[in-house]
Amino acid sequence: MATLPLKPHYSAVVIGGGQAGLSASHYLTVHGIDHVVFEKKTVAHKWKNERWDAFCLVTPNWQCQLPDHPYDGTDPNGFMVKDEILAYVDRFVAKVDAPVLEHTAVTALERHGEFFRIETSAGTVTANTVVIATSLYSEPAIPRAAERLPEEIMQIHTAQYRNSGQLPEGDVIVVGSGQSGCQIAEDLHLAGRKVHLVTGNAPRCARFYRGRDVVDWLSDIGQYDITVEQDGMTKKKHDTNHYLTGRDGGRDIDLRKFALEGMALYGRMSGVAAGRMLFEPNLKSNLDGADRVYNGINALIDRHIAAKGIEAPAGSPYVPLWEPEAETMELDLKAERITSVIWATGFSPDWSFVGLPIFDGNAYPVHRRGVTAVDGVYVLGLPWLWTWGSGRFLSVGKDAEYVVGHLAARLSAEEPALKKAANA
C-alpha cells in the first residue's frame, strides 16, 4: 500500500478506506485517474478491529467477489472464519496498493469554485470529484436508555465484543436480534452463559432448504440481480438483515429453539427505569414475523423448483417449536443477576463533514446507483446502493466500477474546458 505525500489537488478523492473505498481506488487506477484515499483509522479497520472471535461469513465464500479478487480458497460453499476473512481482505489490500493516507480524518467537504475543497487532519486539498465511501456503520448506536442502567453493569457494543470471557460472571442481556445480536447471543449460549435476548423486527432465513444453501437458490432465482428501483424495493435500503449463521458449516438460528434451551426472550426494549429494563409486548409478533419471512423465502424456492422442474428433496413450512406463554414487560436487573449488557443496536453514519446538499429529509444521501445530484460527488458502500449485494463483498466491486466509470466520463468531458481555461 502506497504512502504518498499530500498533493494540493487531485482528480478524485476517496473518503473511506474500507472495501468500498479500496474498490473505488482499484477502478480509479484502472482508468489512470490520480487520486488519494483518506482513512480516519486504518485500512479495513472494521474487519480487523470490530469483529468477535467466532465471527464468520453469513454468505458462502463464493460470494466474495471484490474487484479482480474473487474467493481464492478451496471451499467455495463454506463460510470463512475471522482469520480467513482477514487474510482474504489483506490480499486484496496488497493487490490494490491504494494511495491511502491512514489516520487522516476528513473534517469538511465543500464546494470550492469549480472544484471541491476537502479539509483533513493532514491538511487541505481540492479535487475535481469525490467518492464518499464511509458506509452507514461509522459509529456504534447506543440508545440513551443506556445512561439509566446501574453503574455496576458492564456495557459494551457489538463492535467491542470478542468472547464470553471478557464479561463478568452473571447473566447477559443482548439488546437487538439482527445478525450480530443473534450470533453473539448464540456465542454466549454455546459458552454456557445465561442469555436474555431483547428481540426486534429482524427477519430470519433458512441456511439450507431442499438440499442446497438458500443463498444458492436465491442466486439462481435472480434475487441478487434485483435493483432497488424495481417495484416494491425502494424501502429495502433501510431493511434489517436476515439472521442466520455460517458457524460450524452453517445452520439456522431459531430463537424458539434457544428458548427451549433456557435463553430468555423479550419484546423490543421500551426503556430503563429504577433498575429495571422495560419491554414492549411484541415478542410473539417479532417471532411470528421472522418466521413468516423464513417461510416466505422457502415458498419462493418451492415455486422456482416447481416452475423449472428441478429434482430436489421435499420441503415443508417451518412449524414453531415454542410459543411464549406470556409477554414479560419488565426485568429486575439485580434480581436476575444481570452483570452485563451488549448493545446489538447497530451503527449510525457520520455525514457531519459533508457540507453539500446531497441528503433527503432523513439525512440519507439521495443518489441513483451512487451518483448524487451534486455533479462530481458520489457515494459508495451503502446497503442496497443498487442491489442486495451492494455494500458487501458480492457487489461492492460492481457498484464501484459503475461509479468510477461515471466519474471517469465526467472528467473526460470537462478536460477540454479545463485546458481552455488554463491557456486563457
TrEMBL record:
Annotated organism of origin: Pararhizobium polonicum
Keywords: Oxidoreductase
Any Pfam family: Pyr_redox_3
Highest taxon above the source species: Bacteria
Gene Ontology molecular functions: flavin adenine dinucleotide binding; monooxygenase activity
SUPFAM superfamilies: FAD/NAD(P)-binding domain
PANTHER family named among the record's database cross-references: FLAVIN-BINDING MONOOXYGENASE-LIKE PROTEIN (AFU_ORTHOLOGUE AFUA_4G09220) (PTHR43539), FLAVIN-CONTAINING MONOOXYGENASE (PTHR43539:SF78)
Protein name in the entry: FAD-dependent oxidoreductase
